[in-house]
Amino acid sequence: MTAREWAGRVHPAGPWEPDPGPMPVPGGAGFGDMIDALRELQDTITGAAPPPHLVEQATRALREVSAALKPHTVPEREQITGHRMDLRGRGQTMAPAFVPDEWDDSRVSGRVTFGRHYLGGNGAVHGGAVPLLFDEVLGRLANSGRRVSRTAYLHVNFRRITPVGVELRLDAKFEREEGRKRFLTAALYDGGHVTADAEGLFVALRPGQP
Ligand SMILES: CCCCCCCCCC(=O)SCCNC(=O)CCNC(=O)[C@H](O)C(C)(C)COP(=O)(O)OP(=O)(O)OC[C@H]1O[C@@H](n2cnc3c(N)ncnc32)[C@H](O)[C@@H]1OP(=O)(O)O
């Protein structure tokens, strides 16, 4: 079974349920730990000012890990990152890990913390990372229990700085559907303040559309 087929069987009705059941899990139980270690590494490297000898040592160690993993490169369908719906952030590090707390087919509410890796400047999250998070969460909600869709547009308003290293809340809502068009909204909160909000259009793909 490919990782993509596994993801479909574990979550036939929607992408937020965390129970993989008794099926064999691609990458094993420790895959999430490896991804968490990678997140930690990204944050640590971003925030570090190490001496040159340590930079060389770290570079060697990183190249060794890459060389060990490279022979296990697989086609996209068998790729584990992005397909492990039981893991925080689908087992990928591109976007910060969204942790859903409550959900149904029309809304989801959860928590997210942007690590140092996502710093833009002066303690604020990079302006490209916030839409990345919205696209991830709205995309998953748009496809929750429905035919696959893709983002046609994503409008993001930056209301205040989004702070790095602070646990934030994200609420997302499926507003309405018109034919193949799905309209969704979301807002990101730091305590009682909205730091950014978004509106997205997701268009359901026709058969054969990539
Ligand atoms: C389980 C895994 C979870 C994954 C979570 C992560 C999800 C991440 C989601 C993504 O990021 S997807 C990647 C980013 N998006 C893309 O790469 C999409 C690229 N664009 C396309 O593939 C096509 O443009 C698209 C599928 C969106 C639409 O093309 P189509 O040829 O299928 O549709 P068409 O152009 O006929 O438009 C259909 C309707 O949508 C409307 N529409 C399309 N694009 C629009 C737009 N940009 N603005 C306003 N309306 C738009 C269009 O006017 C029309 O409205 P009407 O039906 O009322 O006539």
Automatic annotation (TrEMBL):
Residues 1-25 are annotated as: Disordered. It comes from the Bacteria. It is found in: Cell projection, Ruffle membrane; Cytoplasm; Membrane. It is a peripheral membrane protein. Gene3D superfamilies: Hotdog Thioesterase. InterPro entries: HotDog_dom_sf, THEM4/THEM5_acyl-CoA_thioest, Thioestr_dom. Its EC number is 3.1.2.2. It catalyses: decanoyl-CoA + H2O = decanoate + CoA + H(+); (5Z,8Z,11Z,14Z)-eicosatetraenoyl-CoA + H2O = (5Z,8Z,11Z,14Z)-eicosatetraenoate + CoA + H(+); octanoyl-CoA + H2O = octanoate + CoA + H(+); (9Z)-octadecenoyl-CoA + H2O = (9Z)-octadecenoate + CoA + H(+). Its main location: membrane. Keywords: Apoptosis, Cell membrane, Cell projection, Cytoplasm, Fatty acid metabolism, Hydrolase, Lipid metabolism, Membrane, Transit peptide. Residues 15-25 have a biased composition (Pro residues). Pfam families: 4HBT. GO terms for molecular function: hydrolase activity. Residues 122-192 form the Thioesterase domain. Belongs to the THEM4/THEM5 thioesterase family. This is Acyl-coenzyme A thioesterase THEM4. It comes from Streptomyces vulcanius.
